[in-house]
Specification:
- The protein is mainly α.
- Helix content is 60%, strand content 12%.
- The protein contains two helices and two strands; from the N terminus they run ββαα.
- α1 packs antiparallel against α2.
- β1 and β2 form a beta hairpin.
- It is elongated and about 40 Å long.
- Strands 1-2 form a two-stranded antiparallel ribbon.
C-alpha cells in the first residue's frame, strides 16, 4: 500500500485488484477501491502530462479538474462509510 499527498489530501493506493467477487468486499467497498485506483491512475497520468506539457496546458488543466472531481467523490464516499 502506498500513500500520496495531493492538494491537501492523502490518496491511498491499495494496489491493483482482480475484481474477484469472492474477495469478501461489499459493493460499497469495491466502489471505493475502484475509485481509489482510478484516482491513482489519473494522478500518474497527470504527473506525466505536466512533465511533457507544463502546468498551464489546457489538457493538463482538464485532467486536473477531472481528478479533483474523483477525489471529491472519494471523500464523500469515505465520509459516508461507517467507521469501525
Amino acid at each position: 500500500m502506498s500513500l500520496y499527498y495531493y492538494r491537501g489530501l492523502i490518496i491511498v493506493d491499495t494496489g491493483k485488484r482482480n475484481g474477484n467477487p469472492s474477495s469478501g468486499l461489499t459493493d460499497d467497498n469495491r466502489n471505493i477501491e475502484n475509485l481509489s485506483e482510478t484516482i491513482e491512475e489519473m494522478r500518474e497520468q497527470l504527473v506525466k502530462l505536466v512533465q511533457e506539457k507544463g502546468l498551464s496546458d489546457g489538457e493538463v488543466v482538464v485532467l486536473s479538474q477531472r481528478l479533483d472531481e474523483h477525489i471529491v467523490q472519494f471523500q464523500i464516499k469515505m465520509s459516508r462509510k461507517p467507521s469501525k
